[in-house]
Amino acid sequence: MKKGHQVTMKEIAKKLGVSVSTVSRALKDSPELHPDTKKRITEMAKSMNYQYNLLAQSLRISKSKVLGVIVPELTSHFFSSNISGIQDTAYKRGYNIMICQSNESFEQEKANLKTLVSSQVDGLLISLSRETKSYEHLQELYDREIPFIMFDRVTEEIPVSKVTVDDAHGAYLAVKHLLNQGCKKIAYFSGPTDLYISKKRKEGYLEALAEFGIPEKDSKVYVTDLTTEMNRKVTLDMLKEKELPDAIFAMIDPLAIDIMIALKDSGIKIPEQIALAGFTNNPTSAVVEPSLTTISQPGYEMGQLAANHLLDQLDDIVSDEPQSFVLLTTLIERKSSLKNQNLS
Amino acid sequence: MKKGHQVTMKEIAKKLGVSVSTVSRALKDSPELHPDTKKRITEMAKSMNYQYNLLAQSLRISKSKVLGVIVPELTSHFFSSNISGIQDTAYKRGYNIMICQSNESFEQEKANLKTLVSSQVDGLLISLSRETKSYEHLQELYDREIPFIMFDRVTEEIPVSKVTVDDAHGAYLAVKHLLNQGCKKIAYFSGPTDLYISKKRKEGYLEALAEFGIPEKDSKVYVTDLTTEMNRKVTLDMLKEKELPDAIFAMIDPLAIDIMIALKDSGIKIPEQIALAGFTNNPTSAVVEPSLTTISQPGYEMGQLAANHLLDQLDDIVSDEPQSFVLLTTLIERKSSLKNQNLS
Question: Cis link prior to A31 (omega < 30° from 0)?
């Protein structure tokens, strides 16, 4: 992939005050457009020295009928659910998928992108690695007009469609539930603070506290790198403090389960002494003792929606105009937080 | 991929009583071989009308530096561990990997193979779907001399290298452990009986019983399709029988956990009334209550070994002669089976 600025359809669209898909249709000589509009657009394209991207064009025409998918990791239940949703949808529509994982590495994400583009996939679905903080590789993909959309781990820097879940609202639901159980001192166990979901879920945590009249200065945040060792250490260190929380909201379920094990090992009763809630709804969370209250993220549905939207773009069923889809999360009440009732 | 018989290097090797890699070296004009040997081989190749596979050749020379991987499913912890092992190894050796999942479907496995071969991967690592009972697609790959090896779900029909775990021995270890705990009536909960691992693990189960003087007629096998619903139903039906087992060996951990939940719901004490052991060592198995005794399968190591062996073949570090690697499994003792001791 060589660099250097190329005039894009987006720039032509902006100059003329029309949509990118109108430009795209004009350059494809679509019969849907008025001849005058087509003429205006093709003349502008010519005057701006627009190079119709022949590679992207031939990709679209040749139709490998393959989508490329890049995810940070495959061992996560959430991402493997995304992939199942993508694959089932793609397969129904006559496409196969090839998957690469970045292993949370920026370098590997770039290598994955190169590999999939060389394989002439018709389009890509991308979820960013934890390390990805610059976006030239995606900008280049965008400039080359290779269709792609982003899901779950996205960036606002690139104007393509995005599918995410409402992280802040999910966290708000979990913390509000703990407050409704009578908990008053709720701690938030967070992953690395520069992670998008760490921030978003903290927002929801603070919002629920505020709603119950608890100011931010009375909030309590513990940060871990999300390794089992550090999750355990942070929990045991917390237990040495003078004043303990009466509830913990953990950013993700695997962290919640590490906290649960450390609390149980220290003789703390859950939920009586400390109530606990997570976020993700991994299968494990239903079978631990006590079963874990959590927020369900619709991973499979997210994959379905992302794949359907990309394929709709490829098939010109919808325009290439970027759209943002936000899926709702739901609270799943289980034993780890229910102080007032008995639930099986 | 078109069909039709092509003379293979293997057939030339057989005619001359030499190895496939000797034929391969002769046709590549390797300086390691004696000129007479080279002459003998190239003349035979000519007389048999051997078509040196230019596509495979160019693939080997062009070196996309990408390996293709096909697994039955990505949601399984075992296969995602395999992939991590493959990816880490490939990455260290300068290769990227593209992954396809067959979703346990024979048709999708064939489509995956076509997709990856079209993408000009340098080689493939394949684990078969549950449905795969004929092997023409693999035979064709073999005839086209595209390098590949198989792992975990393999077939003896195709003469390529294979990496597997010792399923029968692992099952033997689990059942022997239950017998050593004083259990005398051990039931085997099996998946569909035509699955390779159902058979192999049953062999190990029967072998352990035999060693303790229990004949096959006193064994007890329950079969499920491995869905959570049926796992639960089979367990609850078993509990209605007059005589209950004092231990259960479950073919895989997810089945063991479904059994555990059904037993607990029915008020059965584990391990006091019924001891329980699984096979896989999923992360969940350590955190359920009681923690699950299981057999550890070295999934990551299997991926490493498979990738290293394939890359060694591609780099001519080892010959293309098929080899079989069998990795050992180990017993992990946890609370669900320990009747005589206390373990944390």
Answer: no
